[in-house]
Amino acid sequence: AASDVYKRQIINDAIEKILSDRDRKILYGVVEGRSYSSLAKEVGLSDKTVKRQYERIIERIKKFIISSEFC
């Protein structure tokens, strides 16, 4: 449906506008099923930091979506 395409575009816009390259790498890595440990080595952070950063990424995307009148 057209609304699904619109929603996907808003999410893609959020990812591009508000996330750094490292944030996108973490987000896509988690979505692909990679472990925090694996991602931590790749981006040079600890496992806990990657997990916390992923949680922050999700919150930032949620806030962007809400402010875009997504719902």
Secondary structure layout:
Elements: H1 2-18, H2 21-31, H3 36-43, H4 47-67
Question: What can you tell me about this protein's structure?
Answer:
Helix content is 80%, strand content 0%. The protein has four helices and no strands. The longest helix has 21 residues. The two termini are 15 Å apart. The protein is mainly α.
Residue-averaged pLDDT? 89
Poorly predicted regions: none
What is the gyration radius calculated from CA atoms? 13 Å
Major β-sheet annotation: none
Number of strands: 0
Into which percentage range does the β-strand content fall? under 5%
Number of helical regions: 4
Shape by Cα distribution: elongated
Helix/strand-derived category reads mainly alpha
How far is the first residue's CA from the last residue's CA? 15 Å
Helix amount: over 70%
Order of helices and strands: HHHH
In short:
This protein is mainly alpha-helical and 71 residues long. The protein contains four helices and no strands.
